[in-house]
Amino acid sequence: MNFPKISQAMMLERLEPPSGPVDMVLDTDTYNEIDDQFAVVYALLSFEKINVHALYAAPFFNDRSTGPGDGMEKSYEEILRLLALLERAPEGFAFRGSMDYLHDVDKPLRSEAALDLVDKAMAQRDGPLYVVAIGAITNVASAILIEPRIIEHIVVVWLGGNAHYWPKAAEFNLGQDPLAAEVVLNCGVPFVHLPCFNVVTHLLTTLPEMEMWVKGRGRIGDYLFEIYQDYTGDHFGRSKVLWDIVTIGWLLNGDWVPSQVIPTPILTDELTWEEDPSRHVCREAMFVDRDAIFRDLFTKLQRHAEA
Predict the structure, then answer these.
(1) How confident is the model at residue 22 (pLDDT cuts 50, 70, 90)?
(2) 193-217, pLDDT tens digit by residue?
(3) Any bridge partners for residue 263, and if so which?
(4) Measuring CA to CA, which residue among 24, 28, 99, 36 is closest to residue 58?
(5) Kind of pairing, strands 191-194 and 154-159?
(6) Residues 283, 76, 233, 225: is their CA dihedral positive or negative?
(7) In the prediction, which pLDDT does 184 show?
(8) Which end of the chain has fewer surrounding CB within 10 Å, N or C?
(9) Is residue 101 within 8 Å of residue 182, measured between CB atoms?
(10) Which CATH superfamily does the domain covering 20-306 fall into?
């Protein structure tokens, strides 16, 4: 597969944290656990800077689904549930993604989500379309394989994989579809990597904090509190990472997620990282200002409840 080559100057420009309003689509395995729901709501409530053009349901397979296709369908249903609570219409906005993972780069998966992403990426706009992915990156990789030219018009922001110095690259999102991750890492698209361990692990919260700042903030606040409370039967001395909200935090304020430009690491067959200084660059987060992001999320939930 031949991909367009992006100049070093354009790559560095695209990798800068955005300073103004952005156009964005969000690709999410929404029912996988509970952090995606917080990220979807956070994105939609950040309308002063983030213009969300679409929500895409991503596949997943764990004890909350019977297979990747079932996970995608449950994620799509969860997206509809969130939109209803926020009184947002789903028509032309929420799209089903792939029923499976990517198995062959010559056979991209032509889901509603992948095809819509191609259309939106190729549409005329000022600046790039930010493609935020918070699950297996199947839909995004398929869109790139369907129409490689979209890499000239997008920036991919992914919560997936671990830090490049971590012994294992794979966590849940990367491990679900390593081939899709390879496509995104190797195609030369402007890529912002938000590693799980040992970076986004800072985004911990607890049931008492949820009760104080999320419960009672409208129907959506009560729903977010309910799914957090029900996620485990034992909250004593426990906290939970809300991983996916980091993507929205980075779009809103790059200072909340300090990062650096590095050569894009190579994903090996053993699902470890390998460094090559001659590779095209990406941006990788190094730390997360946990308090700043949660404060902003809680403030927006309160604003929404009072509107």
Answers:
(1) very high
(2) 999 999 999 999 999 999 999 999 9
(3) 281
(4) 28
(5) parallel
(6) positive
(7) 98
(8) C
(9) no
(10) Ribonucleoside hydrolase-like (3.90.245.10)
